[in-house]
Structures are given as structure tokens and as C-alpha cells.
């Protein structure tokens, strides 16, 4: 399995890949550009190419994460800005050899939720229509903190089907978001069966593996270290044994350990993937 965590790019994209490998990871996530700003970034071709070559040499899988403010559901007056930032992020992720670029499904607070879905489809069509890389656009499920958009598997399947190039679109499944939204209560076999029947999990190309500080259905997006939150180790062990997740990047977005890395948590997740439940802590049902 390809297990790792989010890493900093302070030392560049190659530096991020090296830091991931040193922490015992076989996958990692990074920000191609400033996560707090909604602006494009020039591609450092040499650094990105070195990152891609290093990942190939060491069998590392990576995913980029778009800036938080990139909102695919934004109305038409913001669409050109969203499009240019999205293409910039995709270009960098492609040059780094990444599997895909994770993009939040989007927020739409208008009166007609259907317009939000239309906006997402239009932005994706316009961005991918003007960019021909192989890096996938990976839509991420949401916790439901500011509305219900992006919390149901049916939304993702339908939006992908309605886009002009669905083969270039996949999904990133965030476990904390799924738990917080009420999509997943910890019963993995039930969710896997339903998602497989819908055609959702077949298009999941990355996983954000995060425990939750709050209970199922809380709609509060607060990550916890694996096995230290409300999801519990047994639920994660079930998920990690799923056939859907055997060959895709699985990354934690949790606080690093005392050594400043995710080495201990990566080892913990690898143990869970091998069927070892390390503690008896389980959430109350």
C-alpha cells in the first residue's frame, strides 16, 4: 500500500519528496502553491522534474492539493480566476509527476443549489478543456460545515458523468469529512457496498486518512491522529483492507509527531493495514 502524509514544500518539491521518504512514507501530499492565496504560481521546471524523477526512482506516489480558496461552485464573475488558478495548480502537479490534484467540491450558499452544481461542471469543463495534462482532477468530499454540498457520493458520481471529459476526473475520499458529514458512521462494509453500487469508489484515486475530533454527523471538520479520535482503530483497519485502496496514495493530514514528521503515525497505519489493532480505544456508538 502507498501510505504517507502531507509534507511541506519549504525545501521545494524535491525536498518534499525526500522528506516523505525519510519518514518511511510511500506516498505524500503537498501544496503546489500558497494554500491561503488565490493566485497562480510560476512553475519551477527543474525542481518539479527532479521531484518526479525521485518519486519514480523510489516508488513514491504523490498528490497535490489546490488552495483552500479555490471554489469550483463559485458564480460566473469569479470563474475566470478559479480557472486560471486551477490550471496553474494542475500544471505544477503534472510536472511533479503526481497522480492528481485534490480540489474541494465547493461551497455554494445561493438560493438554488442546482446552480452550484452547474458552476462546478462549467468550471471543470473550461479548465480541462484548456489544459491537456494527465494529472487527474480529484474532487474531495466535504464535512458539511457550511451547507450540504459535496457530502453525498451521488453528487460526485453525477457531476463526473455530466462533465465533458469524465475520464480525467476522479475523487479523493476524506475519512474525517465522511464521518463528520454522517456519510460514514464507522461501518465500512456497508459504505463500501453502497459506494461500489453507485460507481463512486471505483473512481477514488486518493484517500485523506484522518480521524475526527467530533462524532459522526457533527458536521465539524476537525482532524485527529489515527486512532485518537471518534472513528477508532477498528474502523480504520476495516477501511484499509478494502480492495479499493490497495494501489492509491493514502495520506494523513494530521499533526506531526514530536520529531516533526509523521513517521510514528505512518508506522501505526501500516500496522492497521496488516491487521494489527494497537489499542482498545473505540468510540461509543
TrEMBL record:
Example GO biological process = base-excision repair
Q: Which ranges carry the Xylose isomerase-like TIM barrel domain? A: 18-257
- Which cofactor is recorded for it? Zn(2+)
Coiled-coil residues: none
**SMART domains attached to this UniProt entry:** AP2Ec
Molecular functions per Gene Ontology: DNA binding; DNA-(apurinic or apyrimidinic site) endonuclease activity; phosphoric diester hydrolase activity; zinc ion binding
Source taxon at top rank: Bacteria
- Family per UniProt? Belongs to the AP endonuclease 2 family.
Family annotation (NCBIfam families): nfo
In its UniProt entry, what is this protein called? Endonuclease IV
Q: Which organism is it from?
A: Paenibacillus athensensis
Amino acid at each position: 500500500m502507498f501510505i504517507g502524509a502531507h509534507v511541506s514544500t519549504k525545501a521545494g518539491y524535491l525536498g518534499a519528496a525526500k522528506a516523505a521518504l525519510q519518514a518511511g512514507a510511500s506516498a505524500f501530499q503537498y501544496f503546489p502553491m500558497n494554500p491561503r492565496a488565490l493566485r497562480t504560481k510560476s512553475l519551477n521546471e527543474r525542481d518539479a522534474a527532479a521531484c518526479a524523477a525521485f518519486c519514480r526512482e523510489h516508488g513514491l506516489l504523490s498528490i497535490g492539493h489546490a488552495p483552500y480558496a479555490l471554489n469550483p461552485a463559485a458564480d460566473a464573475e469569479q470563474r475566470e480566476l478559479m480557472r486560471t488558478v486551477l490550471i496553474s495548480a494542475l500544471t505544477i502537479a503534472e510536472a511533479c509527476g503526481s497522480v492528481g490534484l485534490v480540489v474541494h467540491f465547493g461551497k455554494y450558499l445561493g438560493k438554488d443549489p442546482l446552480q452550484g452544481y452547474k458552476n462546478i461542471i462549467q468550471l471543470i469543463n473550461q479548465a480541462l478543456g484548456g489544459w491537456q495534462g494527465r494529472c487527474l482532477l480529484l474532487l474531495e468530499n466535504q464535512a458539511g460545515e457550511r451547507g450540504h454540498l459535496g457530502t453525498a457520493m451521488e453528487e460526485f458520481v453525477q457531476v463526473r458523468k455530466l462533465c465533458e471529459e469524465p475520464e480525467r476526473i476522479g475523487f479523493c475520499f476524506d475519512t474525517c469529512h465522511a464521518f463528520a458529514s454522517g456519510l460514514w458512521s464507522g461501518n465500512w462494509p456497508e459504505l463500501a457496498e453502497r459506494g461500489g453500487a453507485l460507481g463512486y469508489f471505483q473512481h477514488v484515486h486518493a484517500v485523506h486518512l484522518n480521524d475526527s475530533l467530533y462524532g459522526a454527523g457533527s458536521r465539524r471538520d476537525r482532524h485527529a491522529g489515527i486512532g485518537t479520535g471518534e472513528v477508532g482503530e477498528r474502523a480504520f483497519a476495516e477501511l484499509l483492507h478494502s480492495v479499493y485502496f490497495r494501489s492509491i496514495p493514502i495520506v494523513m493530514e494530521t499533526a506531526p509527531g514530536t520529531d516533526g514528521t509523521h513517521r510514528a503515525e505512518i508506522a501505526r497505519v501500516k500496522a492497521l493495514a496488516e491487521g494489527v489493532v494497537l489499542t482498545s480505544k473505540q468510540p461509543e456508538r
